[in-house]
Design a protein that fits this description.
By secondary structure, this protein is mainly beta. It has a six-stranded mixed β-barrel. The chain has a four-stranded mixed beta sheet with strand order 10-7-9-12, with no helix packed on it. A three-stranded antiparallel beta sheet has the order 8-13-11, with no helix packed on it. The N and C termini lie far apart (106 Å). The protein is elongated. Helices cover 11% and strands 38% of the residues. The protein folds into two domains: 94 residues, Ribosomal Protein L25, Chain P; 82 residues, RNA Polymerase Alpha Subunit, Chain A, domain 2, CATH 2.170.120.
Length: 222
């Protein structure tokens, strides 16, 4: 289990104007939900940038401590980004309790891509369909990621949710036959064909159809 810490500030007010004011002061508006209540908080932009670097592509619990010294254990649910600038507009945290199960998503990491049988020997292509998977576990059992070993996969083979490695205290959710990764057949490049242009001068006279009336035929006016 990976656990990080983040300082937050209690926030009052709601709506677009209040959120805009929070951002202008160098903070990101955020909410904490779960455990039967919801709280409005603000997160320092620089603090969140540092947290993002520490998180990387791993799942992690985040201990939030507010300006009153109160702490809560959370997970990041959603992060809303500006589609143009990429700036963080809003963050949603989910509060969890130690010893109680919760549902979240964790990333899937591929292993042994460089020696995958279907790629190395069959010329296949890796099709990574599901980059994360939904699980249920207690906070102490939260894995940073799930590993999918593709070394033995041949062309046409796949790893489904039911094939993922067992992790103590972790229950995989979703459809067991959902494909995580597969090895697709190699793509056959289309062969370009160029139509040959024939010069009429190179065609034998016998092959040129005459447009004059055939001999022995009746002429116009007879």
């Amino acid at each position: 289990m990976n656990q990080l810490k983040l300082k937050v500030v209690s926030r009052e007010g709601s709506g677009t104007s209040a959120a805009r004011r929070v951002r202008a002061e160098g903070f990101i508006p955020a909410n904490v939900s779960g455990q039967g209540n919801a709280r409005a908080i603000s997160v320092g932009k620089l603090d969140y940038r540092k947290l993002s670097r520490e998180l990387g592509e791993e799942a992690s619990l985040i201990e939030l401590t507010d300006d009153k010294g109160e702490s809560m254990l959370t997970l990041i649910q959603t992060v809303q980004e500006d589609p143009i600038s990429g700036a963080i507009n809003h963050i949603d945290f989910l509060e969890v309790r130690r010893g109680e199960s919760f549902v979240t998503r964790v990333p899937v990491h591929l292993k042994n891509e460089e020696i995958c049988d279907g790629v190395k020997n069959g010329g296949g292509v890796i099709d990574f369909k599901s980059h994360d998977v939904e699980i249920r576990c207690r906070p102490s059992k939260l894995p940073e990621h799930v590993v999918a070993d593709i070394a033995a996969l041949g062309v046409g083979d796949a790893i489904h949710i039911s094939d993922l490695p067992e992790i103590e205290g972790v229950e995989y959710l979703g459809n067991e036959v959902q494909v995580i990764v597969s090895i697709q057949p190699p793509t056959v490049a289309a062969v370009e064909t160029t139509e040959e242009v024939v010069d009429p001068a190179d065609v034998p006279a016998d092959n040129i159809k005459s447009e004059t009336p055939e001999e022995g035929g009746a002429s116009e006016g007879e």
